[in-house]
Design brief:
Elements (H helix, E strand, L loop, with lengths): L4 E6 L4 H13 L4 H6 L3 E5 H8 E2 L2 E2 L1 H14 L9 E4 L2 H7 L7
Helix pairs in contact: 3-4
């Protein structure tokens, strides 16, 4: 894997898009199976994650910080100087549901 860890979340049922991304990473020379095993590449279900951060029908910043912070802490970079890339679709899921994302 590169010097970056990757944390990604997708709407439930979007296995095809997740698999396409995994295959693209493989084409770029990333051993995704090793990266997944070593927690350098992590996939989360966007709706499941939203269920952890919503309160009263709205995203709650403290719950967001707790859930996403825990996910980030659980993602293992290749080395101590490595960065983190995050790609998420929670905002898209919120907009489709008519709910604004947290600010």
């Amino acid at each position: 894997m590169s010097s970056l860890a990757h944390l990604l979340e997708w709407p439930h049922g979007h296995f095809v898009r997740r698999e396409l991304l995994r295959k693209q990473l493989e084409e770029w020379g990333v051993d995704t199976y090793s990266a997944l095993r070593n927690r350098q590449l992590v996939f989360f279900d966007a709706r499941n994650m939203l269920g952890r951060i919503m309160s009263g029908g709205q995203p709650d910043w403290l719950l967001f910080e707790s859930a996403i912070g825990a996910a980030i802490q659980d993602t293992k970079p290749a080395n101590d100087d490595a960065g983190l890339r995050v790609y998420g679709e929670m905002v898209g899921v919120l907009w489709k549901a008519g709910t604004s994302p947290p600010r």
